[in-house]
Amino acid sequence: MPIISFANPKGGAGKTTSALLLAGELAAKGARVTIIDADPERWISQWAKLPGKPATIDIIADVSEDTIVDHIESAAKKAQFVIVDLEGTASLMVANAIGMSDLVLIPTQGASMDAKGAAKTIKLIRNQERMARRTIAHSVLLTRTSAAVASRALRNVRDQLDKAGIDVLTTSIVERAAYRDIFDYGGLLSDLTPDQVSNVEKARENARAFAGEVIGRLKSAAAAPKVA
Ligand SMILES: Nc1ncnc2c1ncn2[C@@H]1O[C@H](COP(=O)(O)OP(=O)(O)OP(=O)(O)O)[C@@H](O)[C@H]1O
Ligand SMILES: [Mg+2]
Fold this sequence. Notes:
The protein is of the alpha/beta class and 228 residues long. The chain has helices at residues 15-28, 43-49, 68-78, 92-100, 112-132, 152-163, 177-185, 200-223; strands at residues 3-6, 33-37, 57-60, 81-85, 103-109, 137-145, 173-174. The protein has one domain (3-223): P-loop containing nucleotide triphosphate hydrolases (Rossmann fold), CATH 3.40.50. 47% of the residues lie in helices and 16% in strands. The two termini are 21 Å apart. The chain binds adenosine-5'-triphosphate and magnesium ion. Magnesium ion binds at residues 15-16, 39, 41, 85.
């Protein structure tokens, strides 16, 4: 039922990677997940052709500005979670998907160009909220962070978002080879073995914590007043 979109007009912010990680974690817990692949690069559709895609994850590709609303609506009737991987532009398709979402996650790298993209997404969300006269829960997800050090740029981005009153997930998606490898090998993080890639266990823990936080945000969004 809940619709979770990943949006940031900045290309390479980590939308597709985090969308697949979330889908994998939810499916691993036994949920039925539909991913709407609205990224023109179709990484998730290509991943789905590799061996190891769980039967509980369905992928819908070939979506356009005209069809995305229909696809999201019909997916939400069947799946327990609908995840929308959006293109790296601020288009009408992105606005439509945001307008239908229960939660918008804004993947953002700890650099100012990404933060500008995040600000654009938040503007888009605010406009959709005004048009639909309802609140749309949204959180920034910091991506590709270093496992070892919190950089100055990253601290800066977190501080600025805090000051602007924008929710930032406590869990960030760390830079991990495992997150690239699932797109090459197929399957889920749980299928990767330590001899294939380093720090698999840490990657799994990180993805689990991220999914747990997303579930928490969905619960608070469901309990919050809906009128903007
Ligand atoms: N946490 C991570 N660890 C390692 N590599 C990552 C991580 N996040 C993203 N990447 C890599 O960075 C690149 C861009 O990531 P991704 O495709 O997820 O971004 P995107 O926001 O979907 O981009 P686009 O706007 O082009 O759709 C990819 O090569 C991906 O493998
Ligand atoms: Mg993408």
